[in-house]
Amino acid sequence: MWATQTPLSLIKPLFLSRYSPLTPRSISRTPLRNLLSFGYSRRSSVATVTAMDGGAKTKSANSSPDHNAGNWYSVPELRLRDHHFTVPLDYSLDHRTCPKISVFAREVAAVGKEEQTMPYLLFLQGGPGFECPRPTEASGWIGKACEEYHVRGTGLSTPLTPSSMLQLKSAEDLADYLKHFRADNIVNDAEFIRKRLVPDAGTWTVLGQSFGGFCAVTYLSFAPQGLKQVLLTGGIPPVGGGCSADGVYRACFERIIHQNDKYYKRFPQDIEIVREVVNHLAEHEGGGVPLPSGGILTPRGLQILGLSGLGSSTGFERLHYMFERVWDPFEKWSGFDTNPLYAILHESIYCQGTSSRWSAKRIRDEDGGKFDAIKAAKEGRPVLFTGEVGKMIFPWMFEEIYALRHFKDAAQKEDWPPLYDIASLNTNKVPVAAAVYYEDMYVNFKLVMETANQIAGIRLWITNEYMHSGLRDGGGQVFDHLMGMLNGKKPLF
Protein backbone atom coordinates (compact mmCIF):
# COMPACT_ATOMS: atom_id res chain seq x y z
CA MET A 1 0.00 0.00 0.00
CA TRP A 2 1.17 3.54 -0.59
CA ALA A 3 -0.11 6.96 0.29
CA THR A 4 0.94 10.56 -0.14
CA GLN A 5 -0.32 14.01 0.75
CA THR A 6 -0.31 16.68 -1.93
CA PRO A 7 -0.78 20.43 -1.32
CA LEU A 8 -1.97 21.92 -4.63
CA SER A 9 -2.46 25.56 -3.72
CA LEU A 10 -0.85 26.35 -0.40
CA ILE A 11 -2.67 28.41 2.21
CA LYS A 12 -1.99 28.55 5.90
CA PRO A 13 -3.59 25.46 7.41
CA LEU A 14 -6.41 26.18 9.82
CA PHE A 15 -5.79 25.28 13.44
CA LEU A 16 -8.91 24.47 15.44
CA SER A 17 -8.04 23.88 19.06
CA ARG A 18 -11.65 23.01 19.89
CA TYR A 19 -11.39 19.86 17.74
CA SER A 20 -9.66 17.24 19.84
CA PRO A 21 -8.38 13.84 18.66
CA LEU A 22 -10.59 10.89 19.49
CA THR A 23 -10.16 7.23 20.09
CA PRO A 24 -12.54 5.08 17.98
CA ARG A 25 -14.91 4.23 20.86
CA SER A 26 -14.45 7.35 22.95
CA ILE A 27 -16.88 9.77 21.38
CA SER A 28 -17.59 11.54 24.65
CA ARG A 29 -14.39 13.45 24.06
CA THR A 30 -15.52 14.90 20.73
CA PRO A 31 -16.32 18.62 20.59
CA LEU A 32 -17.97 18.11 17.20
CA ARG A 33 -21.64 18.52 17.89
CA ASN A 34 -23.63 16.40 15.48
CA LEU A 35 -24.11 14.65 12.19
CA LEU A 36 -27.08 15.69 10.09
CA SER A 37 -29.24 13.98 7.48
CA PHE A 38 -31.35 15.31 4.61
CA GLY A 39 -34.04 13.62 2.58
CA TYR A 40 -37.39 13.70 0.89
CA SER A 41 -39.51 10.94 2.35
CA ARG A 42 -42.95 12.36 2.84
CA ARG A 43 -44.65 15.11 0.89
CA SER A 44 -47.09 15.91 3.67
CA SER A 45 -47.39 18.72 6.15
CA VAL A 46 -44.85 18.51 8.93
CA ALA A 47 -46.37 17.70 12.30
CA THR A 48 -44.85 18.96 15.51
CA VAL A 49 -42.30 16.45 16.75
CA THR A 50 -43.06 15.62 20.36
CA ALA A 51 -41.72 13.15 22.88
CA MET A 52 -42.90 11.72 26.18
CA ASP A 53 -41.14 13.13 29.19
CA GLY A 54 -42.46 12.08 32.56
CA GLY A 55 -45.83 11.28 31.00
CA ALA A 56 -46.26 14.71 29.35
CA LYS A 57 -45.75 15.74 25.74
CA THR A 58 -43.23 18.50 25.27
CA LYS A 59 -42.10 20.51 22.29
CA SER A 60 -38.42 21.34 21.90
CA ALA A 61 -37.44 24.92 22.63
CA ASN A 62 -35.64 24.95 19.28
CA SER A 63 -38.88 24.60 17.34
CA SER A 64 -40.29 27.38 15.14
CA PRO A 65 -42.96 27.58 12.41
CA ASP A 66 -40.52 26.15 9.82
CA HIS A 67 -38.51 23.95 12.20
CA ASN A 68 -39.85 21.22 14.45
CA ALA A 69 -37.29 19.67 16.79
CA GLY A 70 -37.86 16.52 18.79
CA ASN A 71 -36.45 15.57 22.16
CA TRP A 72 -33.21 13.70 22.68
CA TYR A 73 -33.23 9.89 22.68
CA SER A 74 -30.51 7.26 22.93
CA VAL A 75 -28.65 4.52 21.12
CA PRO A 76 -25.50 2.99 22.66
CA GLU A 77 -23.03 5.80 23.50
CA LEU A 78 -24.95 8.35 21.42
CA ARG A 79 -27.77 10.83 21.92
CA LEU A 80 -30.01 11.55 18.90
CA ARG A 81 -32.55 14.25 18.09
CA ASP A 82 -34.77 14.45 15.00
CA HIS A 83 -35.53 17.69 13.16
CA HIS A 84 -38.10 18.43 10.46
CA PHE A 85 -37.72 21.60 8.40
CA THR A 86 -40.34 23.07 6.06
CA VAL A 87 -38.34 24.49 3.14
CA PRO A 88 -39.16 26.01 -0.27
CA LEU A 89 -39.30 23.63 -3.20
CA ASP A 90 -37.92 26.45 -5.38
CA TYR A 91 -35.66 28.92 -3.59
CA SER A 92 -35.95 31.46 -6.44
CA LEU A 93 -39.62 32.08 -5.56
CA ASP A 94 -41.18 34.05 -2.71
CA HIS A 95 -40.64 31.82 0.32
CA ARG A 96 -43.93 32.94 1.86
CA THR A 97 -46.09 31.67 -1.00
CA CYS A 98 -44.08 29.08 -2.94
CA PRO A 99 -44.67 25.29 -2.63
CA LYS A 100 -42.99 23.71 0.38
CA ILE A 101 -41.44 20.33 1.12
CA SER A 102 -40.21 18.67 4.28
CA VAL A 103 -36.51 18.06 4.94
CA PHE A 104 -35.49 15.73 7.77
CA ALA A 105 -32.25 16.03 9.73
CA ARG A 106 -30.96 13.86 12.55
CA GLU A 107 -28.70 15.37 15.18
CA VAL A 108 -26.18 13.09 16.89
CA ALA A 109 -24.07 13.89 19.92
CA ALA A 110 -21.90 12.01 22.38
CA VAL A 111 -23.66 11.00 25.58
CA GLY A 112 -23.40 13.84 28.07
CA LYS A 113 -22.50 16.40 25.38
CA GLU A 114 -25.94 16.96 23.88
CA GLU A 115 -26.67 20.21 25.74
CA GLN A 116 -23.18 21.65 25.38
CA THR A 117 -22.32 24.28 22.79
CA MET A 118 -19.90 22.71 20.31
CA PRO A 119 -19.06 23.08 16.60
CA TYR A 120 -21.29 21.33 14.07
CA LEU A 121 -20.25 18.80 11.42
CA LEU A 122 -22.62 18.25 8.50
CA PHE A 123 -22.44 14.83 6.78
CA LEU A 124 -23.54 14.61 3.14
CA GLN A 125 -24.30 11.06 2.01
CA GLY A 126 -23.47 9.47 -1.35
CA GLY A 127 -26.08 8.89 -4.05
CA PRO A 128 -27.97 10.65 -5.45
CA GLY A 129 -31.18 9.24 -4.06
CA PHE A 130 -30.05 7.03 -1.19
CA GLU A 131 -30.64 7.77 2.48
CA CYS A 132 -27.98 7.99 5.17
CA PRO A 133 -27.28 4.93 7.29
CA ARG A 134 -29.08 5.18 10.62
CA PRO A 135 -26.67 5.37 13.57
CA THR A 136 -27.01 2.41 15.91
CA GLU A 137 -23.89 2.90 18.05
CA ALA A 138 -20.80 5.05 18.37
CA SER A 139 -18.65 3.07 15.94
CA GLY A 140 -16.52 3.88 12.92
CA TRP A 141 -16.07 7.46 11.84
CA ILE A 142 -19.17 8.55 13.79
CA GLY A 143 -17.23 7.62 16.88
CA LYS A 144 -14.66 10.15 15.73
CA ALA A 145 -17.03 12.90 14.74
CA CYS A 146 -20.65 12.70 15.90
CA GLU A 147 -23.30 14.14 13.56
CA GLU A 148 -25.34 13.00 10.52
CA TYR A 149 -27.21 14.58 7.62
CA HIS A 150 -29.68 13.10 5.02
CA VAL A 151 -29.57 14.24 1.40
CA ARG A 152 -32.52 16.09 -0.13
CA GLY A 153 -34.73 13.58 -1.90
CA THR A 154 -34.30 10.59 0.43
CA GLY A 155 -34.63 9.45 3.99
CA LEU A 156 -37.48 10.81 6.10
CA SER A 157 -38.19 13.93 4.04
CA THR A 158 -40.65 14.55 1.21
CA PRO A 159 -40.17 11.52 -1.06
CA LEU A 160 -39.44 10.87 -4.69
CA THR A 161 -40.91 7.39 -5.00
CA PRO A 162 -42.40 5.77 -8.10
CA SER A 163 -45.93 6.43 -6.80
CA SER A 164 -45.29 10.08 -5.91
CA MET A 165 -43.62 10.83 -9.25
CA LEU A 166 -46.50 9.27 -11.20
CA GLN A 167 -48.71 12.06 -9.85
CA LEU A 168 -47.00 14.49 -12.22
CA LYS A 169 -48.80 14.63 -15.55
CA SER A 170 -45.93 14.50 -18.05
CA ALA A 171 -42.23 13.76 -18.39
CA GLU A 172 -41.63 17.50 -18.85
CA ASP A 173 -43.45 18.30 -15.60
CA LEU A 174 -41.45 15.62 -13.79
CA ALA A 175 -38.14 16.91 -15.17
CA ASP A 176 -39.03 20.45 -14.10
CA TYR A 177 -39.82 19.13 -10.63
CA LEU A 178 -36.65 17.03 -10.42
CA LYS A 179 -34.41 20.01 -11.16
CA HIS A 180 -35.13 21.13 -7.58
CA PHE A 181 -33.53 17.95 -6.17
CA ARG A 182 -29.94 18.34 -7.34
CA ALA A 183 -26.80 19.53 -5.55
CA ASP A 184 -27.60 23.24 -5.87
CA ASN A 185 -30.80 22.83 -3.85
CA ILE A 186 -29.17 20.44 -1.41
CA VAL A 187 -26.85 23.36 -0.64
CA ASN A 188 -29.84 25.72 -0.33
CA ASP A 189 -31.40 23.27 2.14
CA ALA A 190 -28.16 23.04 4.09
CA GLU A 191 -27.95 26.81 4.39
CA PHE A 192 -31.61 26.98 5.46
CA ILE A 193 -30.89 24.48 8.25
CA ARG A 194 -27.53 25.98 9.26
CA LYS A 195 -29.09 29.40 9.90
CA ARG A 196 -31.72 27.84 12.17
CA LEU A 197 -29.63 25.19 13.91
CA VAL A 198 -26.11 26.57 14.43
CA PRO A 199 -25.95 29.16 17.25
CA ASP A 200 -25.84 32.71 15.86
CA ALA A 201 -26.06 31.19 12.34
CA GLY A 202 -22.38 30.37 12.55
CA THR A 203 -20.36 28.26 10.12
CA TRP A 204 -20.04 24.49 10.19
CA THR A 205 -17.70 21.80 8.88
CA VAL A 206 -18.98 19.64 6.00
CA LEU A 207 -17.99 16.02 5.34
CA GLY A 208 -19.02 14.82 1.86
CA GLN A 209 -18.82 11.15 0.87
CA SER A 210 -18.97 10.30 -2.88
CA PHE A 211 -21.90 12.30 -4.32
CA GLY A 212 -21.97 14.11 -1.00
CA GLY A 213 -18.51 15.38 -1.94
CA PHE A 214 -19.91 16.64 -5.24
CA CYS A 215 -22.49 18.57 -3.19
CA ALA A 216 -19.74 19.94 -0.95
CA VAL A 217 -17.92 21.34 -4.00
CA THR A 218 -21.19 22.96 -5.07
CA TYR A 219 -21.33 24.40 -1.53
CA LEU A 220 -17.83 25.82 -1.99
CA SER A 221 -18.96 27.33 -5.29
CA PHE A 222 -22.14 29.11 -4.20
CA ALA A 223 -22.25 29.43 -0.40
CA PRO A 224 -18.71 29.34 1.04
CA GLN A 225 -19.75 31.88 3.68
CA GLY A 226 -21.50 29.05 5.55
CA LEU A 227 -18.42 26.82 5.71
CA LYS A 228 -15.70 26.51 8.31
CA GLN A 229 -13.92 23.52 6.72
CA VAL A 230 -14.68 20.86 4.11
CA LEU A 231 -13.68 17.18 4.13
CA LEU A 232 -14.08 15.15 0.93
CA THR A 233 -13.89 11.35 0.75
CA GLY A 234 -14.04 9.79 -2.72
CA GLY A 235 -16.07 12.74 -3.97
CA ILE A 236 -14.38 15.37 -6.16
CA PRO A 237 -16.48 15.98 -9.31
CA PRO A 238 -15.57 17.19 -12.79
CA VAL A 239 -16.54 20.88 -12.79
CA GLY A 240 -16.38 21.96 -16.45
CA GLY A 241 -19.39 23.44 -18.21
CA GLY A 242 -21.83 21.54 -20.42
CA CYS A 243 -22.00 17.79 -19.78
CA SER A 244 -18.87 16.06 -18.53
CA ALA A 245 -20.41 12.58 -18.52
CA ASP A 246 -18.69 11.48 -21.76
CA GLY A 247 -15.27 12.20 -20.32
CA VAL A 248 -16.17 10.48 -17.06
CA TYR A 249 -17.26 7.26 -18.78
CA ARG A 250 -14.29 7.15 -21.16
CA ALA A 251 -11.86 7.62 -18.29
CA CYS A 252 -13.54 4.91 -16.22
CA PHE A 253 -13.76 2.10 -18.79
CA GLU A 254 -10.12 1.11 -18.28
CA ARG A 255 -10.70 0.92 -14.52
CA ILE A 256 -13.81 -1.26 -14.81
CA ILE A 257 -12.00 -3.71 -17.11
CA HIS A 258 -9.15 -3.84 -14.59
CA GLN A 259 -11.61 -4.54 -11.76
CA ASN A 260 -13.24 -7.34 -13.76
CA ASP A 261 -9.83 -8.89 -14.36
CA LYS A 262 -9.04 -8.79 -10.64
CA TYR A 263 -12.41 -10.31 -9.76
CA TYR A 264 -12.06 -13.27 -12.12
CA LYS A 265 -8.47 -13.89 -11.02
CA ARG A 266 -9.68 -14.16 -7.45
CA PHE A 267 -12.73 -16.28 -8.31
CA PRO A 268 -11.92 -18.05 -11.62
CA GLN A 269 -14.73 -20.56 -11.01
CA ASP A 270 -17.23 -17.73 -11.54
CA ILE A 271 -16.24 -17.30 -15.22
CA GLU A 272 -18.19 -20.38 -16.26
CA ILE A 273 -21.04 -19.75 -13.81
CA VAL A 274 -21.64 -16.25 -15.17
CA ARG A 275 -21.49 -17.51 -18.77
CA GLU A 276 -24.09 -20.16 -17.98
CA VAL A 277 -26.36 -17.57 -16.41
CA VAL A 278 -26.01 -15.27 -19.43
CA ASN A 279 -26.80 -18.09 -21.85
CA HIS A 280 -29.85 -19.09 -19.79
CA LEU A 281 -31.17 -15.53 -19.76
CA ALA A 282 -30.53 -15.00 -23.47
CA GLU A 283 -32.29 -18.22 -24.42
CA HIS A 284 -35.31 -17.56 -22.21
CA GLU A 285 -38.51 -16.37 -23.86
CA GLY A 286 -38.37 -12.59 -24.11
CA GLY A 287 -34.60 -12.53 -23.61
CA GLY A 288 -34.78 -12.62 -19.82
CA VAL A 289 -36.36 -14.00 -16.67
CA PRO A 290 -39.33 -12.19 -15.05
CA LEU A 291 -38.60 -10.76 -11.61
CA PRO A 292 -41.03 -10.58 -8.66
CA SER A 293 -41.17 -6.78 -8.94
CA GLY A 294 -42.60 -7.00 -12.47
CA GLY A 295 -39.32 -6.24 -14.22
CA ILE A 296 -37.12 -8.59 -16.23
CA LEU A 297 -33.57 -9.83 -15.70
CA THR A 298 -31.62 -9.87 -18.98
CA PRO A 299 -27.89 -10.44 -19.62
CA ARG A 300 -27.23 -6.70 -19.63
CA GLY A 301 -29.24 -6.38 -16.43
CA LEU A 302 -27.01 -9.01 -14.84
CA GLN A 303 -23.96 -6.96 -15.78
CA ILE A 304 -25.01 -3.98 -13.66
CA LEU A 305 -24.20 -6.03 -10.57
CA GLY A 306 -20.86 -4.30 -10.98
CA LEU A 307 -22.58 -1.28 -9.44
CA SER A 308 -22.28 -2.84 -5.99
CA GLY A 309 -19.82 -5.65 -6.56
CA LEU A 310 -16.62 -4.19 -7.95
CA GLY A 311 -16.04 -0.88 -6.24
CA SER A 312 -16.11 -1.45 -2.48
CA SER A 313 -13.81 -3.25 -0.10
CA THR A 314 -15.91 -6.43 0.28
CA GLY A 315 -17.71 -6.21 -3.05
CA PHE A 316 -15.78 -9.05 -4.71
CA GLU A 317 -16.67 -11.45 -1.94
CA ARG A 318 -20.35 -10.44 -1.87
CA LEU A 319 -20.62 -10.79 -5.65
CA HIS A 320 -19.04 -14.24 -5.53
CA TYR A 321 -21.35 -15.43 -2.76
CA MET A 322 -24.33 -14.14 -4.69
CA PHE A 323 -23.39 -16.37 -7.61
CA GLU A 324 -23.44 -19.33 -5.25
CA ARG A 325 -27.23 -18.79 -5.26
CA VAL A 326 -27.39 -17.04 -8.66
CA TRP A 327 -30.99 -15.70 -8.82
CA ASP A 328 -32.54 -14.86 -5.51
CA PRO A 329 -30.66 -11.77 -4.34
CA PHE A 330 -30.58 -9.81 -7.60
CA GLU A 331 -33.25 -7.23 -6.84
CA LYS A 332 -31.73 -6.58 -3.43
CA TRP A 333 -28.52 -5.59 -5.17
CA SER A 334 -29.96 -3.13 -7.70
CA GLY A 335 -31.91 -0.85 -5.34
CA PHE A 336 -33.77 0.89 -8.17
CA ASP A 337 -37.17 -0.37 -7.09
CA THR A 338 -36.92 1.50 -3.80
CA ASN A 339 -34.61 4.35 -4.83
CA PRO A 340 -35.51 5.34 -8.42
CA LEU A 341 -34.08 8.84 -8.04
CA TYR A 342 -30.57 7.46 -8.54
CA ALA A 343 -31.36 6.21 -12.04
CA ILE A 344 -33.36 9.27 -13.09
CA LEU A 345 -30.95 11.94 -11.88
CA HIS A 346 -27.59 10.22 -12.01
CA GLU A 347 -26.30 11.39 -15.39
CA SER A 348 -27.59 14.88 -14.59
CA ILE A 349 -25.00 15.28 -11.83
CA TYR A 350 -22.51 15.75 -14.65
CA CYS A 351 -24.71 18.19 -16.60
CA GLN A 352 -24.81 21.98 -16.56
CA GLY A 353 -27.00 23.63 -19.18
CA THR A 354 -27.36 20.57 -21.41
CA SER A 355 -28.56 16.96 -21.55
CA SER A 356 -26.27 13.95 -21.25
CA ARG A 357 -27.98 12.33 -24.29
CA TRP A 358 -27.60 8.92 -22.65
CA SER A 359 -23.86 9.28 -22.37
CA ALA A 360 -23.21 5.85 -20.84
CA LYS A 361 -24.88 4.09 -23.75
CA ARG A 362 -23.07 6.16 -26.37
CA ILE A 363 -19.65 5.59 -24.81
CA ARG A 364 -20.32 1.89 -24.28
CA ASP A 365 -21.18 1.58 -27.98
CA GLU A 366 -17.60 2.70 -28.73
CA ASP A 367 -16.06 -0.33 -26.97
CA GLY A 368 -16.14 -2.73 -29.92
CA GLY A 369 -18.31 -5.29 -28.14
CA LYS A 370 -16.12 -5.84 -25.07
CA PHE A 371 -19.14 -5.50 -22.82
CA ASP A 372 -21.54 -7.53 -24.97
CA ALA A 373 -22.50 -10.26 -22.50
CA ILE A 374 -24.16 -12.63 -24.97
CA LYS A 375 -21.27 -12.38 -27.43
CA ALA A 376 -18.73 -12.96 -24.65
CA ALA A 377 -20.59 -16.06 -23.42
CA LYS A 378 -20.78 -17.54 -26.93
CA GLU A 379 -17.09 -16.89 -27.54
CA GLY A 380 -16.05 -18.36 -24.19
CA ARG A 381 -14.74 -15.06 -22.82
CA PRO A 382 -15.36 -13.77 -19.28
CA VAL A 383 -18.52 -11.66 -19.11
CA LEU A 384 -17.60 -8.17 -17.95
CA PHE A 385 -19.72 -6.43 -15.34
CA THR A 386 -20.56 -2.76 -15.78
CA GLY A 387 -22.76 -0.89 -13.35
CA GLU A 388 -20.31 1.52 -11.81
CA VAL A 389 -18.24 2.76 -14.71
CA GLY A 390 -18.69 6.33 -13.56
CA LYS A 391 -22.08 5.05 -12.30
CA MET A 392 -23.59 4.04 -15.62
CA ILE A 393 -27.29 4.37 -16.28
CA PHE A 394 -28.60 2.97 -19.59
CA PRO A 395 -31.88 3.73 -21.37
CA TRP A 396 -32.86 0.04 -21.47
CA MET A 397 -32.97 0.04 -17.67
CA PHE A 398 -36.13 2.16 -17.90
CA GLU A 399 -37.75 -0.71 -19.79
CA GLU A 400 -36.47 -3.73 -17.86
CA ILE A 401 -36.69 -2.37 -14.29
CA TYR A 402 -40.34 -2.11 -13.37
CA ALA A 403 -40.08 0.90 -11.04
CA LEU A 404 -38.39 3.00 -13.76
CA ARG A 405 -40.72 2.28 -16.69
CA HIS A 406 -42.58 5.58 -16.61
CA PHE A 407 -39.63 7.90 -16.11
CA LYS A 408 -37.27 7.47 -19.07
CA ASP A 409 -38.03 10.78 -20.79
CA ALA A 410 -37.64 12.78 -17.57
CA ALA A 411 -34.00 11.70 -17.26
CA GLN A 412 -32.90 13.73 -20.29
CA LYS A 413 -33.72 17.34 -19.46
CA GLU A 414 -31.95 19.83 -21.75
CA ASP A 415 -31.44 22.83 -19.45
CA TRP A 416 -30.07 21.58 -16.14
CA PRO A 417 -28.96 24.53 -13.96
CA PRO A 418 -25.26 25.14 -13.17
CA LEU A 419 -23.70 23.21 -10.31
CA TYR A 420 -20.24 24.76 -9.97
CA ASP A 421 -18.54 28.15 -10.20
CA ILE A 422 -14.93 27.69 -11.27
CA ALA A 423 -14.02 31.33 -10.55
CA SER A 424 -15.24 30.92 -6.96
CA LEU A 425 -13.33 27.64 -6.58
CA ASN A 426 -10.17 29.29 -7.95
CA THR A 427 -10.35 31.90 -5.17
CA ASN A 428 -11.53 29.55 -2.42
CA LYS A 429 -10.60 30.53 1.13
CA VAL A 430 -12.29 27.61 2.95
CA PRO A 431 -9.81 24.99 4.20
CA VAL A 432 -10.42 21.74 2.28
CA ALA A 433 -8.91 18.27 2.76
CA ALA A 434 -9.73 15.33 0.49
CA ALA A 435 -9.11 11.59 0.59
CA VAL A 436 -8.44 10.52 -3.00
CA TYR A 437 -8.52 6.77 -3.60
CA TYR A 438 -6.13 5.92 -6.40
CA GLU A 439 -8.03 2.78 -7.47
CA ASP A 440 -11.50 4.32 -6.99
CA MET A 441 -13.83 2.77 -9.57
CA TYR A 442 -16.58 5.30 -8.94
CA VAL A 443 -14.66 8.59 -9.14
CA ASN A 444 -11.80 8.57 -11.66
CA PHE A 445 -8.39 9.56 -10.28
CA LYS A 446 -7.30 11.53 -13.36
CA LEU A 447 -10.47 13.62 -13.41
CA VAL A 448 -10.23 14.18 -9.66
CA MET A 449 -6.76 15.64 -10.07
CA GLU A 450 -7.97 17.97 -12.82
CA THR A 451 -10.66 19.36 -10.54
CA ALA A 452 -8.39 19.53 -7.50
CA ASN A 453 -6.17 21.93 -9.42
CA GLN A 454 -9.17 24.26 -9.67
CA ILE A 455 -9.85 24.40 -5.89
CA ALA A 456 -7.53 26.87 -4.19
CA GLY A 457 -6.02 25.63 -0.95
CA ILE A 458 -7.15 22.02 -1.18
CA ARG A 459 -4.93 19.40 0.44
CA LEU A 460 -5.01 15.87 -0.94
CA TRP A 461 -4.32 12.57 0.75
CA ILE A 462 -3.79 10.15 -2.14
CA THR A 463 -3.89 6.49 -1.14
CA ASN A 464 -4.56 3.02 -2.54
CA GLU A 465 -5.09 1.61 0.94
CA TYR A 466 -8.85 2.06 0.59
CA MET A 467 -11.49 1.71 -2.08
CA HIS A 468 -14.38 4.13 -2.59
CA SER A 469 -15.93 3.01 0.70
CA GLY A 470 -12.88 4.02 2.74
CA LEU A 471 -14.80 6.31 5.09
CA ARG A 472 -16.98 3.38 6.13
CA ASP A 473 -14.31 0.68 5.99
CA GLY A 474 -11.52 2.56 7.72
CA GLY A 475 -13.24 2.98 11.04
CA GLY A 476 -12.24 6.45 12.18
CA GLN A 477 -8.87 6.49 10.39
CA VAL A 478 -9.90 8.35 7.22
CA PHE A 479 -11.83 11.01 9.12
CA ASP A 480 -9.03 11.40 11.66
CA HIS A 481 -6.40 11.74 8.93
CA LEU A 482 -8.33 14.48 7.12
CA MET A 483 -8.97 16.40 10.32
CA GLY A 484 -5.27 16.15 11.10
CA MET A 485 -4.48 17.72 7.73
CA LEU A 486 -6.65 20.72 8.60
CA ASN A 487 -5.85 21.20 12.27
CA GLY A 488 -2.07 21.24 11.88
CA LYS A 489 -1.24 17.69 12.96
CA LYS A 490 -0.22 16.61 9.44
CA PRO A 491 2.63 18.63 7.87
CA LEU A 492 2.19 20.23 4.47
CA PHE A 493 5.13 18.26 3.06
Précis, in short:
With 493 residues, the protein is of the alpha/beta class. It has helices at residues 162-165, 171-178, 183-197, 211-222, 245-266, 269-283, 299-303, 306-309, 315-325, 330-334, 341-345, 359-364, 373-379, 397-400, 422-426, 445-452, 470-473, 477-486; strands at residues 3-7, 35-36, 50-53, 56-59, 67-69, 73-75, 78-88, 100-110, 121-124, 147-148, 204-209, 227-233, 242-243, 289-290, 296-297, 351-352, 432-437, 458-463.
List the SSEs and their pairings:
Elements: E1 3-7, E2 35-36, E3 50-53, E4 56-59, E5 67-69, E6 73-75, E7 78-88, E8 100-110, E9 121-124, E10 147-148, H1 162-165, H2 171-178, H3 183-197, E11 204-209, H4 211-222, E12 227-233, E13 242-243, H5 245-266, H6 269-283, E14 289-290, E15 296-297, H7 299-303, H8 306-309, H9 315-325, H10 330-334, H11 341-345, E16 351-352, H12 359-364, H13 373-379, H14 397-400, H15 422-426, E17 432-437, H16 445-452, E18 458-463, H17 470-473, H18 477-486
Parallel strand pairs: 2-10, 9-11, 11-12, 12-17, 17-18
Antiparallel strand pairs: 1-18, 3-4, 5-7, 6-7, 7-8, 13-16, 14-15
Helix pairs in contact: 3-4, 6-13
Keywords: Hydrolase
Protein name: AB hydrolase-1 domain-containing protein
InterPro entries: AB_hydrolase_1, AB_hydrolase_fold, Serine_prot/Carboxylest_S33
